[in-house]
Amino acid sequence: MLVRDYMVTDVVCVEIPGNRDDVLRILKRTGISGVPVLKDGELVGIITRKDLLRKADETQLGLLMTPDPVVIRPDAPISEAAQLMVRHNIRRLPVVENGTMIGIISVADLVAAIAQMRLEEPIKDSYVSKTYALWEDTPLSLVGRILEISGYDAIPILMEDGTLTGIISERDLIRHTRIEDGIEVSDFSNGTDDDEWTWESIRDMHTISYGISKIQLLPIPVKNAMIRNVLAVPLNAEISECALKMKRARIDQLPVVNGNKRLIAMLFDRELIKVLLPERQGLRKS
Predict the structure, then answer these.
(1) Whether the predicted pLDDT of 74 surpasses 90
(2) Contacts 24+ apart (CB under 8 A), 277-280
(3) In what residue span(s) does the CBS domain sit (predicted)?
(4) Which CATH number fits domain 3-116: 3.40.50.300, 1.10.10.60, 3.40.50.10790, 3.10.580.10?
(5) What's the pTM?
(6) What is residue 163's DSSP assignment?
(7) Which one has a higher pLDDT value, 121 or 126?
(8) Phi-psi category of 146—alpha, beta or left, where left has phi over 0 and alpha has psi -120 to 50?
(9) The pLDDT of residue 282 is above 80
(10) Does residue 174 register a pLDDT over 50?
């Protein structure tokens, strides 16, 4: 099972110099999580949803992107791709051959490979993650901040009675953003710190106004942005069965519920691909 068998060759890219707003439109339209950045046809970086949300007031692609991305060759086994993604906590690897990018392989592509492997091992505690949930009336801006601090890609949403009612992910956040232009004002003085209260310092005070452009989350509760038709699995669900559900629904995570349909954990695709790691495969064979 090689990278070339699962990679995507028709890759959406952006060029430096370029426009941040164009990247945002691409991510909104396609639902993908990131795009490679090229300069004169050469791969120089990656821009992701996280980059746009964390650097909301940055417009230059060169400052938004992660430079010198981790890459992989097309003849590498997909287990090596899984190793790199887990080690570097990334979701995609540009595929490079003879110095040229010929494709990209993502977590979703590895999940598709796992779906074909017909692994009957239950997910249980080996692949699920502890999680927490938010109330359905939590403001979307606060949800974005919580996702950023926690490092989670998605969070379950509960109603007042504790019932699971939805899921919110970075993809949903991107779909509910807008570009907001405004004016910032800065004051500065020609004086030094020692004389900041002197008449000379006040006389030398200057004011500069400059335009800003920020990505803002819409001022709405999370229930208006979340996905409501939540696909969930039990703790004894089989690995390949879960991978197939993710592939068909084009989702990155599955809530794990108990017999009473109560949320107990989350199954993230980035955890599921650990089944491809050599040490995990060795355990299954033994």
Answers:
(1) yes
(2) 277/79, 277/82, 277/83, 277/86, 278/79, 278/83
(3) 7-63, 65-121, 127-185, 226-286
(4) 3.10.580.10
(5) 0.81
(6) -
(7) 121
(8) alpha
(9) no
(10) yes
